Amino acid sequence: MRASLLQIAVNPAESPDSRRLRVADLVREQSGADFVVLPELWPVGAFAFESFAAEAEPLDGPTHEAMAKAASDAAVWLHAGSIVERAPDGSLYNTSLVFSPEGERVAVYRKIHRFGFDKGEAVLMAAGEQPVTVDLPAATVGLATCYDLRFPELFRALTDAGAQLLVIPAGWPERRRAHWTLLAQARAVENQSYVLACGTAGTHAGVQQAGHSIVVDPWGEVLAEAGADEQVLTVELDPSLVARTREQFPALKDRRLGLAPPSLSPAQSPLSSAQSPQHRS
Length: 281
Hints:
- The chain is an alpha/beta fold.
- The protein has one domain: Nitrilase/N-carbamoyl-D-aminoacid amidohydrolase (4-Layer Sandwich), CATH 3.60.110.
- It contains seven helices and 15 strands.
- The strands form three sheets. It has a six-stranded mixed sheet.
- A hairpin with a 2-residue loop joins strand 11 and strand 12.
- It is globular.
- It starts with a strand and ends in a 33-residue tail after the last helix.
């Protein structure tokens, strides 16, 4: 399974519409990949809080349209990163979209853990409520976003739901880059899963981004890591390694706590753009 992480630079001099067109072309260039991943809030910038309301879009808005077409043109499974979603009730969400190689939206995940404490995303956006997995032909993927990386209980729920790949688009700041790498490896080791963590480059509203997108295998080995600038990171994955790792070192079988079955939204079934995400994420 070939995965490509597109570490997009968010330059405030580039309009969101121009960036959508540019990123769509980058996705099309990954036509040899099986799975392509984009970062968090790349159309607007993860720290561009003052632009969230103005740049918010419905699920089937301009990012959906551009990414569905790009996924179809490249014939790839596409995790299109996340957008500022404006829900029908007016609430804003940090919402991830996943598309099939036919350009059909197959999963919607609203970020559960919002960053900012008493400002920024934490007060501007509503929280998602449901973990989400999506079945690709080669593996089951568990969805998370940026600050979610600090909450291991979410990843346990995704693992219990069958996730073999944990995908984390992010807009992680440079000043906490050491945490980014450490936590990505920790989530891989403790869940014996691949972790694909895709960050942004550039500066969002004065906040320098960490970049350094990273792919970690189920033993915690870093298979590939990007630098600080815009970059495409491509790596070959062997999903069968997850089962072999869990068989060879069956630590998950020794769990004593937190064994209740997770409540998951049915992301395995494709959605039409008219369906509400409230029943999925």
